Amino acid sequence: GVLVPLFMQSDELHVFLTKRTEEVEHHKGQVSFPGGTMDSIAATIIDTALREAGEEIGLMRNAVEVLGIFDDFWTPSGFCITPVVGFITTIPSFVLSKTEVSEIFEIPLSFFHDSSNERIEQREYRGKMTNVYFYRYGKHEIWGATAKMLRAFLQALDAEFKNKQTL
């Protein structure tokens, strides 16, 4: 489970992302959401996402209003990721796990709405061609599962917004 931590800044919705260290077991140096594997202690995927956000960036559970669970995503490497969408009303002082997270940064969601910021590459993995999405934000490249989750989340929000306008 991963946490998609949203917050408002200057009347605009933003998201926090992390950059993984080179010491982690999987996806070294990649941009991701805080999160990890569900263990036997966690009762739910929400508990997992909140626990991992606490461990990785020092985000306390009571600082997050859980808005819901988004669709599962399967990675080509076989991971099933469940995004838990949460809203942060007060931005805390983050404390990064030195072994897991090298950096935390924020991006306005409007950045991902601008199609000129998106790059799509066709890649083959295990004999299948697939679209891989990329976004370059400053020095950070957001790609793979994180980019795909952000893209799908924004498309779902847009569809919901259009649906409400037609009612």
Tell me what you see in this structure.
The protein has three helices and eleven strands. The strands form three sheets. Strands 1, 2, 3, 4, 7 and 8 form a six-stranded mixed sheet that branches. By secondary structure, it is an alpha+beta fold. Strand 5 and strand 6 (80-81) form a beta hairpin. The longest helix has 23 residues, at 144-166.
Distinctive features:
single chain, 167 residues, alpha+beta, three-stranded antiparallel beta sheet, 3 helices, 25% helix
Please tell me the overall pLDDT. 89
Q: Structural class of the secondary elements?
A: alpha+beta
Pattern of helices and strands: EEEHEEEEEHEEEH
Q: How many separate helices?
A: 3
Brief digest:
This protein is of the alpha+beta class and 167 residues long. It has helices at residues 45-57, 109-113, 144-166, and strands at 2-9, 12-20, 31-32, 64-69, 73-74, 80-81, 83-88, 101-108, 118-125, 128-137, 140-143.
Write the layout of secondary structure elements.
Layout (H helix, E strand, L loop, with lengths): L1 E8 L2 E9 L10 E2 L12 H13 L6 E6 L3 E2 L5 E2 L1 E6 L12 E8 H5 L4 E8 L2 E10 L2 E4 H23 L1
Parallel strand pairs: 1-7
Antiparallel strand pairs: 1-2, 2-3, 2-8, 4-7, 5-6, 9-10, 10-11
